[in-house]
């Protein structure tokens, strides 16, 4: 027996996109609060964009007229700011390098006597062992 095709109602397709349950009270309050706020902020953004375009249209001829003065002045200020920032960065780098070096030397100087004592003990132990070995060999040789 052949299967019959499954017939869907037109509303079934639409209902598949809808949620199974109704939105909660907090979700409704969030939408009611945020939609007007978003609309107000969008209007303010549009007004600011309009004001910026008008201001740019008014200021462009002034920039063109004064460009022989403004361009070198802007370049001079930009180079001066860049120089000060670079100088500060190099100064901070130098101070941190000197600080690291001083701390490194202090740590090495504090552990240097301990290292010297350890090395001296090892040398004495080695010399003592060699002396004992040489003494035993000479005794072995001198015994008849």
UniProtKB/TrEMBL annotation:
Annotated TM spans: 28-49, 56-78, 84-105
Major localisation: other
The keyword tRNA processing is assigned to this record: no
Biased composition (Polar residues): 126-144
Stretches the record annotates as Disordered: 125-144
Alphabetical list of Pfam families matching this protein: Oleosin
Record localization: Lipid droplet; Membrane
GO cellular component terms, A-Z: membrane; monolayer-surrounded lipid storage body
Keywords of this entry: Lipid droplet, Membrane, Transmembrane, Transmembrane helix
This protein's record includes keyword Transmembrane helix: yes
GO biological process, one term: seed oilbody biogenesis
Topology versus the membrane: Multi-pass membrane protein
Its job: May have a structural role to stabilize the lipid body during desiccation of the seed by preventing coalescence of the oil. Probably interacts with both lipid and phospholipid moieties of lipid bodies. May also provide recognition signals for specific lipase anchorage in lipolysis during seedling growth.
Membership in a protein family: Belongs to the oleosin family.
Record's protein name: Oleosin
Species assigned in the record: Sesamum angustifolium
């Amino acid at each position: 027996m052949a299967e019959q095709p499954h017939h869907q109602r037109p509303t079934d397709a639409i209902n598949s996109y809808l949620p199974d349950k109704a939105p909660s009270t907090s979700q409704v309050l969030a939408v009611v609060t945020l939609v007007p706020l978003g609309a107000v902020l969008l209007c303010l953004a549009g007004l600011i964009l309009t004001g910026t375009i008008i201001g740019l249209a008014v200021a462009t001829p002034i920039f063109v007229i004064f460009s022989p003065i403004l361009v070198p002045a802007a370049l001079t200020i930009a180079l001066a700011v860049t120089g000060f920032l670079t100088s500060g960065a190099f100064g901070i780098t130098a101070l941190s390098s000197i600080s690291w070096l001083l701390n490194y030397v202090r740590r090495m100087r504090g552990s240097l006597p301990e290292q010297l004592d350890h090395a001296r003990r090892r040398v004495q132990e080695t010399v003592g062992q060699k002396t004992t070995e040489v003494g035993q060999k000479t005794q072995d040789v001198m015994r008849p």
